[in-house]
Amino acid sequence: MKRIIKSMEKKYLLPSLELVQEVFTEYDSPKEGKIVRRLVEEIRAKKYYIPELELIMVNENDEIMGYAMFSRFHIEGKYENELLILTPVAVKTQLQRQHISKELLEYGFDVAKRLGFQAILVEGNPRNYNNRGFQSSYKFGIEAGPNIKLPHPDCLMVKELEKGALERISGFVDYSFYEALHEGETVMNAKLLGFFSGFPTRHFPVDIAERLKEELINRDSLVFVSAWPSDYERNDSDSAGMNHMFEECHMSFKRYSVIDNRTDALEAKRLIQEASCIFLMGGHAVQQFQLICEKGIGDEIRKSSAVILGVSAGSYNMAKRALDIWESPVPYDGLGLADITVKAHFSQENQELLQILLQISLEQNLPIYAMEDESAIFIKDEHVTYTGNIHLVKQGSVCPLSLEILECNLKRNKMSR
Fold this sequence. Notes:
Elements: E1 4-7, H1 13-27, H2 30-45, E2 54-58, E3 64-72, E4 83-91, H3 100-114, E5 119-123, H4 126-129, E6 135-136, E7 142-144, E8 156-160, E9 171-173, E10 192-196, H5 206-215, E11 221-227, H6 232-247, E12 255-259, H7 265-274, E13 277-283, H8 285-295, H9 298-303, E14 307-311, H10 313-317, E15 321-322, E16 332-333, E17 342-343, H11 351-363, E18 368-371, E19 376-380, E20 383-387, E21 390-394, E22 397-400, H12 403-416
Parallel strand pairs: 4-5, 7-9, 10-14, 11-12, 11-13, 13-14, 17-18
Antiparallel strand pairs: 1-2, 2-3, 3-4, 5-8, 6-8, 10-19, 15-16, 18-21, 19-20, 21-22
């Protein structure tokens, strides 16, 4: 069978998309097939696209056998004139294991080198790429960012096209600027999101109470989610006390309840589905998130149109990248209600805590909103406001939060998706 490799031409644009979707649908799922197809369409429409490096292999009948795309890639806004990413690669299912991808890649390496590129990044099975000159990227200071979940660190690889090129390239890899990879993600359904640090006086400050009163018109059911799942006496006492905080501000609910280890999964789901207000309590963040997972209420919280509030540990778990520094300096995947990583009970006098946050923000490339007690961040319909003293810890530095900084950071996060 004759094999011809060529750069993309107009007549192959649609057939190549159909091949990519078909291959990834068969390999993974229909959803994955659609996502990868949209990724190709997105790259073609953006500045990262290089027509000479969108490659196809055809047979003597001009039928597409295989496909590979190399496109510009940046790390932390740098190196896009030096670095390429290889994605996707697709070979017609019945023609796999016939060295088609190998020939496409070798051809692409030559074209990329001729165009002046110095290195290529790829994510995949090391067994498929190590014999083509790819090595584990972390060995060269190129690491997966916090939003990339690899089966193993060796699955992110890089290949030098010019000897010594990787001595000049390093940083955290992030795919968040690819919009196609975020299509279908959970959108904000909540009427209002409220992130709280803590209320040591056991009363809502006036401005926070007034904001809650504006939103909590329907007050049928208040549901607390425990952060001490097995401490029933504490849960009963704390939920009663927090319910009283609403009552004294003339926001009485018809009923309130607490989800902890006494609550079976079906009942927990029903409570969340019927809640007017969901309140993630303070305490042990990791134990609370385990409770949410064990009761299967994570998706129910994400889908809820209730007012969703979190205090201390609860506000940590509302985040896309949740952080409990006393458990680990590495963030974990939270509920993803907003891309706001919070540290509660912050005090400027606590220099030890500040140094820990500065180091984490730098090492994890993670902005952290260090909230003093009686402060709050509110999000409604993608509009964000805050009250109280909050500090932004970012890239190893700290500054007082302003509305302009907060809006800018959240806008950047949204655009990068």
